[in-house]
Amino acid sequence: MNPQWHLPQELIEQYAGGRLGPVQVMSVDGHLARCERCRAAVPYEREWLAASWERVEDLVDRPRTRPLARLLRLFGVPEHVAAFLAATPALARGWLVAVTAVIAFAVAAAHLAVRDPQAGLGGLAPFLVLAPVLPPAGIAFAYGPRVDPVHELQAATPMGGARSLLLRAVAVLVTAIVLTGAATPLLPGPPGLTAAWLLPALALTSATLALSTRFSPPTSAAALSAAWFGAVVTGAELTGDVLAPFSPEAQALYGAAALILIPLVYLRRARFDSGEPRWTRP
Amino acid sequence: MDPTVTVRGLTKKYGRNVVLDDLTLEFGRGVTGLLGPNGAGKTTLLRSLATTLAPDGGRVRALGLDPEDRSQRTELRSRLGYLPQDPGFYPHFTLFELVDYVAILKELTDRRERHREVRRVLAEVDLADRATTKVRRLSGGMKQRLALAQALLGEPDLLILDEPTVGLDPEQRMRFRALVSRLGEDRTVLLSTHQTEDVAALCERVIVMNRGRVAFQGSPGELASVASGQVWVAGAAPSGSRLFWRTSDGRYRSLGAGPPGAAPAAPTVEDGYLLLLGEPVGTAK
């Protein structure tokens, strides 16, 4: 509806020049909303108006930054990488809660076990055995058609394949190490022994990635975790010491394995891409 | 017109099951329809072209790029829009978040430009006013439009759409046709569908696949003409015809040899498609 009266030119100029008080501005705004003729008489810059609307739309539509993305931004991670990592299934709240619960359980079990004079420091074994499995388990839930509903879309983008998997694997590994590392000082044992999960974790993680160039990450993580549990039990039975798999000699072995496997993963990274040919052209 | 996509001797097997059998085809700018029965290998072909699946043998060239080569595959992906058959989404994301996430995957790193692009594609599929709705609250048709929106990000030169009209109501299908025909004016669109009406309405070229091979390549008119002189209309159910069905006006449309007393009828794309594949006897449709 067009009103019967219109804004005087002098008032329009004062309005456009920003020389009116708030009450007068609201009154003029109210009139402009109903009066096409007066709207046409108010000078404005089209580009400025379009940019203003875009800013308003962006404020309304843009997604809220997820807590994990905010945290990553604090550490200087670029906005788009932080948003990408925050969508990682293995970094979802449920997963983080589950990992924290497993670590808390293992720490509590260690405290209860060391009270038994017969168990002694051997009570740390459940924690030391479980902790290295957490990063491979995270990688199993980080990438692939079975665990990520958006995988097929992702695989057809420039970020598909090695870039996505390795970025997410690093994020999962760092998260698992930070959570487990935070629990380590709470363990009842000497610092050297309580941190004995770190090198096995690195070795298992790099082995999972290396095997994922041939099999899916969940299959690789499951197979290697089972092999790890089997090796620990066998090692303990053969030596009669539950902490034998965490001895300095064993640590050297885990370190060497990680040093060999990490370059291998880098060399074979193209195999993470489902679009990479598995055959050689004759 | 020069082909923008060429496929030579493409092969893909799952165990003993040959899904693509020495497949050779090519198509250029405009909208190309891909027809075929379930299990014909359409989705496998589309996944190979979209670089999400490596074939066992053969060659693909798309937009002049070789997906076998890692750097060319990455470049192809940056110029590609892909709507898979069963696109998955994060249900707890809003539409804006989801499309924004795919835009990040497509390396649109500048946030302001990326958000502008997200709004553009949501508006293209008429979902701009749903930008803050959670994906889990969408109907099937809306999810399909969302899947199409993400495929349009970055104005891709090659659009691969696997059954994009599934779940769309008639009005949305009309809008979809208008959008795809406009997109096909200056880029290459490959559209897999079971809807022969979509092919007749949209496509300049049609490819029919059967059992992992190309059964036909040509224009929709040429596909219809496969049934020339073999489409009949009669007042009663024909006894000797291989394919017939009762139409809305109560008469019987049949394909094949003309039954006694039947009048010839103009063939459609669907008639040509059915005759080409030699489907078994149908009694009603």
Automatic annotation (TrEMBL), chain A:
Name recorded for this polypeptide: Integral membrane protein
InterPro entries membership: Anti_sigma_zinc_sf
TM region positions: 95-114, 120-144, 165-187, 193-211, 223-244, 250-267
Gene3D superfamilies with a match to the protein in the record: Anti-sigma factor, zinc-finger domain (1.10.10.1320)
Keyword Glycoprotein: no
Annotated organism of origin: Nonomuraea longicatena
Membrane recorded as keyword: yes
Keywords (A to Z) from UniProt: Membrane, Transcription, Transcription regulation, Transmembrane, Transmembrane helix
Automatic annotation (TrEMBL), chain B:
Record has Plastid as a keyword: no
Every ABC transporter domain range: 5-236
Keywords tagged on the record: ATP-binding, Nucleotide-binding, Transport
GO MF annotation, one: ATP binding
InterPro entries: AAA+_ATPase, ABC_transporter-like_ATP-bd, ABC_transporter-like_CS, P-loop_NTPase
UniProt-listed Gene3D superfamilies: P-loop containing nucleotide triphosphate hydrolases
One Pfam family cited in the UniProt record for this chain: ABC_tran
Family: Belongs to the ABC transporter superfamily.
Name of the molecule in the record: ABC transporter ATP-binding protein
Originating organism: Nonomuraea longicatena
Source taxonomy: Bacteria, Bacillati, Actinomycetota, Actinomycetes, Streptosporangiales
